C-alpha cells in the first residue's frame, strides 16, 4: 500500500520567477522529511521494529512538495537531488527483511512526491545491499518509476566490505544504467548506529573526525578495490562530506601509490587522483578551505548543495552563500559547480 502525497493545485507555480540576477542552481544534496504515516504501510511485525528517532522542526517544504518548490524558487534553486531523512537511519539495520521492505515503501512514496514537479524534484532511491540480487531488482524498479541514481550505505556491514566481490553485480548494473551511486554521510554501520549522546569535545570528535574518516575509508575502498577499473561507466557521489579534504588525501595516495607501486602488487593501474577525476563526485555546502581550491582542482567533480530542509541549510540565503564561496571564478566554472555538473551526472531534464 502506497502512502499518497498531499497534492495541491500547482496553478501559477510554473510561472514563478527567480529573483533578478539570481544564479540558476541545482542542489545536489537536499532531503525530504518522510511523514510518519509512510511507515504504516509496513506489515505490523516490521513496523514495530523500526528504530525510534526524534527530529527537530523543519520548513513545511520538507514534506510538502508544493511548499518546497516555492521555497526553492525564492532561493534561486531550480532543481534538487533528494535524499531521505529518517530513511538514512535504516541503512544501519541488520534486519534484512525490514530494511528491504522499508526502502521499497520509501521509494514508492518518493516517486509519488517527485511527480508534483518532475522537472524540479529528482529522488534518489534507497537500495539495500545485504542481498545484491534483490538490490539490483529494486534499482531497476525504482528507475522505472522515474527515480535517479542509487543511494547505498556509506559504511557497509563489516561482513560485506566494499573491497569484497559482494558488490560486483550491483556495480555492473549501476554502470549499465548510468545510475550514479550515492554514499551519504551518516548511513550504515558506524557513526549513525551509535545512539549514545556525545557531549563536549567528544561531540566534535564524532561530528568531524569520525564522519570524515568514514568518508575517506569508503573512497579508499572503492578506488583500491578496482571497481572503477572493472566498470568504466560507474560513477559515485560522496554526499555531504564537503571537499577540502579531498585534494590532500588524493595527493598522499598518489605519492604512496607511485612509491610502492614498483614493488607491491596494486589492484589499480592508474593513480588514485586520475580515477577520482573520472569517476567520483563530492558535494559542498559550507567549506571555504575547499572552495579556495577551485582555481586548480575539482571544477568538474564538485557539486553545490543547500541541504534543505536541515537546520544547517543555506536556505533562504543560498545565492549569497554561493557568491561568497565562488567569488573570483569565471562564470563558466561557477555554472558548472552550482548546476551543470549535477545536470550532466544525473542526466536531468530541468
Please give the structural blueprint.
Elements: E1 25-31, H1 44-47, H2 65-74, E2 77-83, H3 96-114, E3 121-123, H4 132-144, E4 150-152, H5 168-177, E5 181-184, H6 201-224, H7 227-230, E6 236-239, H8 245-260, H9 272-279, E7 280-284, H10 288-291, E8 302-304, H11 318-326, H12 331-346
Q: What would you note in describing this structure?
A:
There is one protein chain. It is globular and about 60 Å long. The protein contains twelve helices and eight strands. The N terminus is likely disordered. The chain has one domain: TIM Barrel (Alpha-Beta Barrel), CATH 3.20.20. The chain is an alpha/beta fold and 350 residues long. Strand 2, helix 3 and strand 3 form a beta-alpha-beta unit. It has a five-stranded parallel sheet with strand order 4-5-6-7-8. A three-stranded parallel sheet has the order 1-2-3.
In short:
The chain has helices spanning 44-47, 65-74, 96-114, 132-144, 168-177, 201-224, 227-230, 245-260, 272-279, 288-291, 318-326, 331-346, and strands spanning 25-31, 77-83, 121-123, 150-152, 181-184, 236-239, 280-284, 302-304. The protein is of the alpha/beta class and 350 residues long.
> Could you name the ranges where pLDDT drops below 50 across 5 or more consecutive residues?
1-16
| Secondary-structure class | alpha/beta
**CATH topology title:** TIM Barrel
CATH level-four homologous superfamily name: Metal-dependent hydrolases
Short descriptors:
alpha/beta, TIM Barrel, globular, three-stranded parallel β-sheet, five-stranded parallel β-sheet, 350 residues, disordered N terminus, 8 strands
